[in-house]
Specification:
This protein is of the alpha+beta class. Helices cover 54% and strands 20% of the residues. A six-stranded mixed beta barrel has the order 2-3-8-5-7-6. The relative contact order is 0.18.
């Protein structure tokens, strides 16, 4: 694309000391502006990736990757479904569960929640709740023991602690001689968990599966069988394979079916934030146009002499493309290096700023995290760096065209 002469002259123009120092200032400002834009883009996208990863891990810490259910109603032959799902090479674990909406009350406090019946010996194979126990343990759930484990926020709403009795009321009726009565049972609090997601900490309670089935009059049937997959991003593919493997006997869902809108909103937020920040790079890149236009005016006599000695208009045009590309490449390279350094050390930088000014950007009581998460992803870095450099090249076209149109006779008339 570039002739050696155009590279030599273009790089020489970039390095040379100019009579007009304002042009030098604008040149440096152009590269610096691009660098700042690239730093901001890489850092913000990495932090957003970190937050999204934290949210995804916490959601999937309580929600299974896949869910095998009956085609309609309750799952009767769940041992067969469990065995079929466990045979898949990408399934790491499977566990049955019983789930229903319920109302929990303790003294005068009442709160709605999802009551989930689980098998303590199998539940750690599909979710990470055992790792988030604040008080007690999952093993405290015993069949016919009627123990219950509450989310931390739910326990605070109810004012319940270990050993307290909590009444669970389910939306089913029991017919007695005195009339219809809602089904209810008193459970003893044997544990409290905290995963850092309000949806689960304030809205989920766990009991033994047999106790839940008895409360809901489900007999030996369950709500479904949850599975954990070796790669969360392959959940859709594996769920389709499991559905085929089940021979149409069961319905197989995955976590994207339950949380698709939420994660789509997060992805849209990331794209829009990236687009808005990319405008910083665009504004900085416009300075390249100003720099090169002033350079063309300043070097009109040089352009005329080059054309007089036989340089083609295309060669002259490539000289200024090289100069603009050099400014863009310098800003992009500097911004990429500094952006990566900041993204990888953003938690230390934020901690230093908080300590210096005595402020707190992240309140652990609100965000459930004590430091700013960052997840640098290579595709994002390549997209930002490549887009910045291509935009810089694009901004060189008009000034290069102005140099292309320079007439030697007009340029040298007053020399």
């Amino acid at each position: 694309m570039f002739h050696p002469l155009s590279l030599f002259v273009g790089l020489r123009y970039t390095r040379s000391r100019r009579r007009n120092h304002f042009i030098s200032f604008i040149s440096g400002f152009s590269s610096l502006g691009i660098a700042l834009g690239v730093i901001a883009l890489i850092t913000v996208l990495s932090v957003m990736n970190g937050f999204h990863k934290e949210i995804r891990d916490r959601i999937l810490g309580m929600a299974s990757h896949g869910d095998v259910k009956a085609l309609n109603g309750r799952l009767q032959d769940w041992p067969s479904a469990l065995e079929r799902a466990s045979r898949h090479p990408r399934v790491l674990g499977a566990a049955p569960y019983v789930e229903a909406q319920a109302m929990l009350s303790h003294r005068r406090e009442v709160s709605g929640a999802i009551v989930r019946g689980v098998l303590p010996e199998l539940e750690p194979e599909v979710v990470d709740v055992a790792e988030h126990m604040v008080l007690g343990s999952l093993d405290e759930l015993k069949a016919q023991g009627f123990g219950i484990i509450l989310g931390n926020e739910l326990a605070m709403k109810l004012g319940a602690n270990l050993g307290d009795k909590v009444t669970v009321v389910v939306p089913q009726m029991t017919v007695t001689i005195t009339g219809s009565m809602p089904r209810l049972k008193r459970f003893t609090v044997v544990g409290i968990f905290e995963v850092g997601m309000n949806e689960y900490d304030s809205g989920v309670a766990m009991v033994h599966m047999q106790d839940a089935a008895k409360l809901l009059s489900m007999g030996d049937s369950v709500t479904g069988v949850r599975v954990r997959i070796d790669d969360v991003w392959a959940a859709r593919e594996v769920s389709l394979q499991l559905a085929n493997q089940m021979e149409g006997l069961y319905r197989v869902l995955n976590w994207t079916d339950y949380h698709r809108n939420f994660f789509a909103a997060l992805e849209m937020e990331k794209r829009m934030m990236g687009l808005l920040l990319f405008l910083v790079v665009v504004i900085a890149a416009f300075n390249i146009i100003s720099t090169l236009v002033m350079m063309v005016v300043d070097k009109q006599s040089d352009i005329a002499i080059l054309k007089t000695f036989g340089a083609s208009p295309g060669l002259v045009m490539r000289i200024f493309v090289v100069q603009g590309a050099t400014l863009g490449a310098a800003g992009t390279l500097l911004g990429t290096v500094l952006g990566l350094l900041l993204a990888y050390n953003v938690d230390e930088v934020v901690a230093s700023v908080e300590k210096m000014f005595g402020i707190h950007f992240i309140d652990p009581s609100i965000y459930y995290i004590s430091q700013l998460p960052s997840d640098v992803q290579l595709p994002d870095v390549l997209l930002v760096a490549g887009g910045s450099f291509l935009l810089s090249l694009l901004m060189t076209l008009y000034p290069a065209w102005r140099a292309y149109k320079t007439e030697p006779a007009e340029a040298l008339r007053y020399e």
